[in-house]
UniProtKB/TrEMBL annotation:
PROSITE patterns: BIOTINYL_LIPOYL, PSBD. One of its GO terms (molecular function) is dihydrolipoyllysine-residue succinyltransferase activity. Its cofactor is (R)-lipoate. Keywords: Acyltransferase, Lipoyl, Transferase, Tricarboxylic acid cycle. Transmembrane segments: none annotated. Belongs to the 2-oxoacid dehydrogenase family. It comes from Jannaschia faecimaris. This is Dihydrolipoyllysine-residue succinyltransferase component of 2-oxoglutarate dehydrogenase complex. It catalyses: N(6)-[(R)-dihydrolipoyl]-L-lysyl-[protein] + succinyl-CoA = N(6)-[(R)-S(8)-succinyldihydrolipoyl]-L-lysyl-[protein] + CoA.
Amino acid sequence: MSIEVKVPTLGESVTEATVATWFKQPGDAVAADEMLCELETDKVTVEVPSPAAGTLGEIVANEGETVGVNALLATISEGEGAAPAPKPEKTEAEADSDDAPAGDPPADTGGEVIDVMVPALGESVSEATVATWFKSIGDTVEADEMLCELETDKVSVEVPSPGAGTLGEILAKEGETVAAGGKLAVLTSGSGASTAAPKSDTPAPQAAPADAGADVENAPSAKKLMAEKGLSADQVSGSGRDGRVMKEDVMKAATAAKASTPVAPAPAAAPRAPVAASDAAREERVKMTRLRQTIAKRLKDSQNTAAMLTTYNEVDMKAVMDLRNEYKDLFLKKHGVKLGFMSFFTKACVHALREVPEVNAEIDGTDVVYKNFVHMGIAAGTPQGLVVPVIRDADAMSFAEIEKAIAEKGAAARDGKLSMADMQGGTFTISNGGVYGSLMSSPILNPPQSGILGMHKIQDRPMVVGGEIVIRPMMYLALSYDHRIVDGKGAVTFLVRVKEALEDPRRLLMDL
């Protein structure tokens, strides 16, 4: 029987990958779940395991080729004795040892077993928590119907059904933590296809011992992880073919090194104040979600790492409000989206970032990385917590394109549909606390960015204009910046340029 090896799900926004390395060659014996090849996308490296034990037949996609999701990579021929149908010469006792239980009804033996796997969670995310199962064991599901929702420390990920059938077994229940690529559940289809590949009677081949003298190319994911963990190749024992170092080998070596290194005791958390018994009975203790834990950690890391400082100014919003009121109906009719304030602020920030590029830069070790583009992060509050979707190349967008992008990202954030790619790569962030009534605040940097602009509530205040006291719609602006890279002069200049552009929007047209 021939089994197809296909490209797994690569992530919500990733549709293709490049075949980086084949660990096996045609004719090689493979064990179930043994790594066959490694795929590289623009975000992550994905290892493809063998779906069954047998012999690698034909390699359809060679190294260097680009393949799409579900594309055929290779075929595997199951070894003798591994075929689902019992051989005539088998005894009754041998037949009972087959994978399918002897008591299964005939209808089940004609269905194909499909594994529901944890999808790719993003480059820096290795595990998730099962938040909700939408289906129960025995339920009938359609292809691409949502089975469950996973919660990572950054986004919520919905897992669709890889095929139509019946949910047979749930392996990871709600609240359990699962690793990327792990198995969540098992589906049984009613298509009449063969059952899931039974385990081969042949024991899985043992990993080849490492040969110190062999010139073996290590897995790309292993190289990357070694660089991140600060390990050299001679500190890691390879378990792959010909002693090739795999990703899991690096993880084991890093864990061993960490265990052997004496760890300084963490500072004790502040003790909780005594609570009366009558009050304790009225308290409710709820475990923090992974997203909330990550928000807390990143915000505290930002304070501990950056030399953060905030400068303030105020802006007269009359010109922007008058312009918006004059053209909002025509804008909506032509572009199909409302004209809001965020597009004006985004345009003003892009204009100011060109003059003060260090606010759009980041520190990498002892280097300063200047960005010749603007990926604008727009902070958004959701029921799950604060998220920052990114509007890519905002500096090349029109007002209408910016408003459409903000509306799409905002809707995705509220519905929990943001992917990892939607929140990565931002170079500057705008946070609008004014929608909640905030009059003034000091926003916290979103690392590794060096600047974040805080918008606030528009409030009528008496102002002196031309020697007379008039009522104007005023807004306080706050720029928090990393003083390690941005000097006070640059921060103040940036904020003044944003103020000037908003108080006279014509300056944006003339690039003044």
